[in-house]
């Protein structure tokens, strides 16, 4: 069903050009809402579908496979989840989350902020965080985009005089884990599709009287890309299953998420390079769909933590474990 919805949509939806801001499609959102996919993991008593993260991961992957950009994760898995967990009311408004930085930290652009109807704002207040919601019109916004044209808008909000609702630091940490996991899932889906397109291309393209797939150099490029994509996928699925099985609270989860993000980040470089190399000039054209996946992987791998940040997290965890406990850390025992 998920693939069918996005496939039907892609056949009629206009294709934006690189550098253009992706338009939020309200008609698609309403169709997804009618199918129970907009709040897929929301509690049934509050209007959600009561599904879990495995179903949500498939929904996100299906959207990526068809090159559909829409704030499903930001709305369902982050903003609405946070409100539900705190016992706050959730209506049909489209939401995103803005976590205000602490002093000395840089501001991170907010996904889909200008297109959302409500923004869930978190801000540090001493040793805790506070939360409140704003209508988008109440906020000062500077619009921007990421590498694939998805809205990434900078928010300015004055929380002076606003009490808000107390948010435990553990819940903020969980929000960070879930945000990182969302992008890992999306990067893996983009890499898988780029590899699939590359395999299709070399199997059908003939040079010097035989398919490109018969050349050993091309085979090496494809196999390296496929291996990197598979490694990223395995690391991401391992982290996701641990998260689901332990309620996002496992002692090994931070290390597993960091590993998944590190593997996915480095895989994005290899897959992008190799996929474009085997496609040649046609892979760089706007008409060919390869760039929809390679640029997406490169954009998403830098959000909610850069590749270097996640590499540092993996290294720090390994050093802290020491030689005696390193294998236990890797094996999750």
Automatic annotation (TrEMBL):
InterPro entries: AcylCo_DH-like_C, AcylCo_DH/oxidase_C, AcylCoA_DH/ox_N_sf, AcylCoA_DH/oxidase_NM_dom_sf. One of its GO terms (molecular function) is acyl-CoA dehydrogenase activity. Gene3D superfamilies: Acyl-CoA dehydrogenase/oxidase, N-terminal domain, Butyryl-CoA Dehydrogenase, subunit A, domain 3. Residues 182-302 form the Acyl-CoA dehydrogenase/oxidase C-terminal domain. Its cofactor is FAD. It comes from the Bacteria. Signal peptide: none annotated. Keywords: FAD, Flavoprotein, Oxidoreductase. The keyword Protein transport does not apply. The keyword Protein transport does not apply. Belongs to the acyl-CoA dehydrogenase family. This is Acyl-CoA dehydrogenase. It comes from Mycobacterium syngnathidarum. The lineage of its organism: Bacteria, Bacillati, Actinomycetota, Actinomycetes, Mycobacteriales.
């Amino acid at each position: 069903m998920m693939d069918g919805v996005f496939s039907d949509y892609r056949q009629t939806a206009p294709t934006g050009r690189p550098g253009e801001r992706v338009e939020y499609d309200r008609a698609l959102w309403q169709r997804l809402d009618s199918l129970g996919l907009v709040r897929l993991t929301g509690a049934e008593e509050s209007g959600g579908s009561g599904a879990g993260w495995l179903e949500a991961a498939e929904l996100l992957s299906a959207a990526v496979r068809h090159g559909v950009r829409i704030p499903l994760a930001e709305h369902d898995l982050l903003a609405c989840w946070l409100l539900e967990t705190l016992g706050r009311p959730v209506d049909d408004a489209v939401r995103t989350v803005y976590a205000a930085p602490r002093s000395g930290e840089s501001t991170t652009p907010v996904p889909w902020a200008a297109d959302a109807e409500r923004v869930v704002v978190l801000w540090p207040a001493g040793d805790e965080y506070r939360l409140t919601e704003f209508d988008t019109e109440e906020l000062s916004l500077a619009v921007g985009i990421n590498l694939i044209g998805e809205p990434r808008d900078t928010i300015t909000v004055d929380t002076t005089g606003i009490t808000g609702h107390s948010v435990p630091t553990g819940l903020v940490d969980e929000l960070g884990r879930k945000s990182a996991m969302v992008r890992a899932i999306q990067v893996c889906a983009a890499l898988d599709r780029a590899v699939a397109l590359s395999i299709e291309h070399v199997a059908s393209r003939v040079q010097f009287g035989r398919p490109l797939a018969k050349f050993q150099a091309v085979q090496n490029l494809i196999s390296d890309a496929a291996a990197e994509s598979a490694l990223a996928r395995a690391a991401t699925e391992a982290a996701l299953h641990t998260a689901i099985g332990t309620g996002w609270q496992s002692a090994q989860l931070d290390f597993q998420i960091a590993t998944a993000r590190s593997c996915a980040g480095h895989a994005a470089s290899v897959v992008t390079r190799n996929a474009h190399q085997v496609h040649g000039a046609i892979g760089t054209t706007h008409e060919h769909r390869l760039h929809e996946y390679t640029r997406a992987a490169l954009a998403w791998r830098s959000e909610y933590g850069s590749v270097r940040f996640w590499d540092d997290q993996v290294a720090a965890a390994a050093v802290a474990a020491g030689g005696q406990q390193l294998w236990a850390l890797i094996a999750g025992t």
